[in-house]
Design goal:
Helices cover 46% and strands 4% of the residues. The chain has one domain. With 268 residues, the chain is mainly alpha-helical. Strands 1-2 form a two-stranded antiparallel sheet. The protein is built from nine helices and four strands, in the order H-H-H-E-E-H-H-H-E-E-H-H-H.
Length: 268
C-alpha cells in the first residue's frame, strides 16, 4: 500500500505538472502587441512677451558746478544768457559776483549797504533834485538814471532766473556761510529781502528831501527810517518802482515752487 500510495502520489504530481505544462505550452500564442506609436514632443511654448513698464527717465545729470572762487565767468555767462543784451552786461561787476550778490541781498533789509559789495556798478550821473536849496525834492528826471537796471529786470525771465538760482544754490549757500552765517540758510534771507522790498511805500507825489550835510536824506523820518532797499526803491521813480516790484513778485512765486519746509532743531 505504501508503495502504491507513493506511486499514486508521484503519478498525481506528474499529472498536475503535465497539466500545468499543457496549459502554458499548448495555449495558442497571444497576438503580438500593437506597435506603440511614439508621439513627437509638443513644440516648446513661445517665449513670454516682454512686460511693458512706464518708466520715467531721469534727466541727464547737469555738469558739475565750478568752485565758488572760480565761478565769476560761469555766473556772468549765465546772466548774459538771461539778459539777452550784451550792452547791458557792462553794468555788472566782473569779480566776486556770487559773493557780492549774497552780501547785497543780506544788506538790503538793513539800514546800510556798502557800494563796495554791490554786484552792479553805481547808477551813472549825479542825483537829480528839484525845488529850491532850502526845500529840495527828488526830480522826476532822476528816474532816467535807473533805466538800464530796469531794462535788465524786464529782460530777465523769472522762471529761468530762479532755475539758475536753484542750480547754483550750493554756491550761494557757501558764500552766505562764509559771510558769517554757518547755521543759517541763504534762501531764508532772500525771501526776507524780497518781502522787505515789496513793502516799500508807493510814492506818487514829490518826495521832500533834507540835506544836513553832504548827502541828501528823506525829510520824512518815517521814510528815512526804512531799510536801504526800500529807500533805493523810493528814489528810482514810481514807474520804475512798479516794474521792479512786479518782477520781484514773479520771482517770489517761482521760488515758492521750489521751496519746502525743513525743521531744524535749535542748538541747545
Amino acid at each position: 500500500m505504501k508503495k502504491n500510495v507513493s506511486i499514486a502520489v508521484v503519478v498525481a504530481v506528474v499529472a498536475i505538472l503535465a497539466g500545468l505544462a499543457a496549459y502554458f505550452l499548448w495555449q495558442p500564442a497571444p497576438p503580438p502587441p500593437a506597435p506603440v506609436q511614439v508621439q513627437a514632443p509638443p513644440p516648446p511654448p513661445p517665449p513670454p512677451k516682454p512686460e511693458v513698464h512706464q518708466v520715467v527717465e531721469a534727466p541727464p545729470a547737469p555738469p558739475p558746478l565750478p568752485a565758488l572762487a572760480d565761478s565769476d565767468s560761469f555766473m556772468l555767462d549765465a546772466l548774459a544768457g538771461l539778459v539777452g543784451n550784451k550792452s547791458l552786461m557792462k553794468f555788472f561787476r566782473t569779480d566776486r559776483v556770487i559773493r557780492n550778490i549774497v552780501a547785497t541781498i543780506d544788506n538790503l533789509p538793513r539800514r546800510r549797504a556798502p557800494m563796495s559789495v554791490m554786484p552792479v556798478e553805481r547808477a551813472p550821473g549825479q542825483f537829480i533834485t528839484a525845488g529850491t536849496e532850502n526845500d529840495p525834492t527828488i526830480s522826476p528826471k532822476n528816474a532816467s538814471r535807473y533805466t538800464p537796471y530796469v531794462k535788465i529786470a524786464q529782460a530777465i525771465d523769472a522762471r529761468k532766473l530762479v532755475g539758475l538760482y536753484v542750480r547754483l544754490y550750493p554756491l550761494f549757500q557757501q558764500a552766505y556761510e562764509e559771510l558769517g552765517y554757518p547755521k543759517k540758510y541763504f534762501n531764508d534771507r532772500l525771501i526776507v529781502a524780497i518781502d522787505d522790498l515789496l513793502a516799500a511805500p508807493d510814492i506818487r507825489e514829490s518826495v521832500k528831501l533834507a540835506r544836513p550835510n553832504v548827502f541828501y536824506l528823506y525829510a520824512d523820518p518815517a521814510l528815512e527810517g526804512r531799510s536801504i532797499g526800500q529807500r533805493i526803491l523810493m528814489r528810482i521813480g514810481s514807474r520804475n518802482e512798479a516794474i521792479i516790484k512786479g518782477k520781484l513778485r514773479e520771482i517770489r512765486e517761482e521760488l515758492k515752487l521750489h521751496m519746502r519746509e525743513k525743521k531744524v532743531e535749535s542748538a541747545k
